[in-house]
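User: what does the whole thing look like in 3D?
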Amino acid sequence: MTHRLDDDSMSAKALFFAGAKRCIPVCIAAGPFGALFGALAVESGMSIFEAVLMSATIFAGASQMVGVDLFGQTIPAWVIVLSIFAVNFRHVLYSASIGRHLRHWTTLQRIIGFHFLIDPQYAEAEGRLERGGKIDFAWYMGLAIPVWLFWVFITWIGAIFGNLLEDSYTYGIDFLLPIYFLGLVMGFRKRSFWLPVVGISAIAAVIAYETVGSPWHVSIGATAGVLLAAFFSPQAKGENSDGIELKEDLS
Amino acid sequence: MMSSIIWIILAGAALTYLTRIGGHLVLSRFDRIHPRVQAGLDAVPAAVLTTIVAPAVYNGGPAEWIAICVAAIAGLYLSLLPMVAIGTLAIILARMAIG
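Assistant: Here's the predicted 3D structure for the full assembly of 350 residues, as structure tokens:
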């Protein structure tokens, strides 16, 4: 605590704008995916309103893409909901980790604030803590609100363009999501035990797909990968961790 | 009556909100998280997303296999957006070439 940022002397308005300044790189990085989501959502049969509603309420790109991917197939509603939940489950770790630094927030501030706890919001908040700052509600919402508004807006733009797209096969649009998901999977490749998890999930998913059938390949494949990590990864044996260091911080 | 898509969206949103507030409400009450639980939780996103990619690749033909390989190689060196762009270009070209 020796080199704190001078938050305490800043007004709520100044803090809000300090947070808002950090929104630009986040919007630039997320924008294309918001537009892509909007376009694919409409392509898969959702209305523009539904696509925008999904962005506003779920506000988590990867899980929204999963939802859209599964809408296109004949899959029971609860399986789609469960898949969205599974993809978003990582937020539990962010929430537990950042929550320890939000004890000065009111209950209402927490109820509102946690809705906006997306990956870059978490990363920015952790970064601010690392630099000796504290997470004021005004600063947090200064970042969260512009990003959320932009995400909803760009979804709407993408959905309008999605209405104009035709012939998704020629343009490879039907294969865009697998490529996108592969990219997300590869984004985790620095995590310990990544390759065994991906390998066993892929094999289990294909076997389940052939035997039990869709949509069970999602839950069966994912369970296989998660169990493998829980029982056999070096991290599970307590050797080292490059995940969120809840354990060390809390003990 | 609201369409089932609206209900799926709202249920997905409610559960997503639970993941965002739930860690704070539940996980923070424990002094420590068992390493197995943390390892399992860490593996969740890669495991789930893999199960969505795998059948698409398995069901594809040579054009899809070429495109996914090109995308994977691109993914080793590039961030998500250029990787998706290259992968998309690859699938368009491969389908034009192979049909």
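In plain terms: Confidence is low (pLDDT under 50) at residues 241-251 of chain A. Residues 12-187 of chain A form one domain.
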